[in-house]
Amino acid sequence: MAKKEKREAKERIFEAATSLFARKGYAAVGTREIAKEADVNVSMINYYYEGKLGILKEIINECYDKYFRAIRDADNKDAPPEGRVRLIARGLVDFFKGNTELAMAGFSVFPIDEPEIVDLKVKWATDNRKVTAGLFEQLGVDMEDTVQSNVVRGLLTGIIQSHFRFKYAWKHMVEAAARSGQTWERITEEPSEELDDAFYEKYSDMLADLYLHGLNSITSRKQLAKGDNNGTKNL
């Protein structure tokens, strides 16, 4: 029983901190607020996580672990490159849909004055390059081109993250308005309702179309430029 209670307390701290960091940001949240939200003594935060920074490190590690697992589980290396992009797009949508709060806290919270967090983010970013390098090569992307690599890398994730961030923020705006007794009719008519699987199937497929079209445009332009530099006339 004691082990179960300890596990539950640690999980409550993690979940409370994740929710608070996602809604308010890391800097705006203190350990006392986390303890109150988790219904634990503040000393337990130091016991389990060695303070607020330790919780954030745990959040980032869990977030990125689930994120890369979603990519790997969705990816099919036997499929053509375009098919792989579509599978990964749907996998990323499912990840953000099922882990919205964790993603908001893990990806967005980035206290640059904390070297441990900077190093942790760099480590995960390096792992990301390893995971996606082969697919980008298949798609004809020149990852040695700094501009090209900065445009294409993380683009799908950024767009999907923006969608769920807006949806997450809107939900809390509606809830805050309801708690204060406001009748904000316009806001309740906006997309506060849950979007179904059919929506996200079309959403991920359309997003893949947009991404692939953009990649084709970038890689084609690069090939044309190489042809011109070599004195080749492109008709």
From TrEMBL:
Record SUPFAM superfamilies: Homeodomain-like (SSF46689)
Lineage start: Bacteria, Bacteria division TA06
Domain HTH tetR-type: 7-67
Protein name per Swiss-Prot or TrEMBL: TetR/AcrR family transcriptional regulator
Start-end of DNA-binding region: 30-49
Alphabetized UniProt keyword annotations: DNA-binding, Transcription, Transcription regulation
Pfam families named among the record's database cross-references: TetR_N
A molecular function (GO) term: transcription cis-regulatory region binding
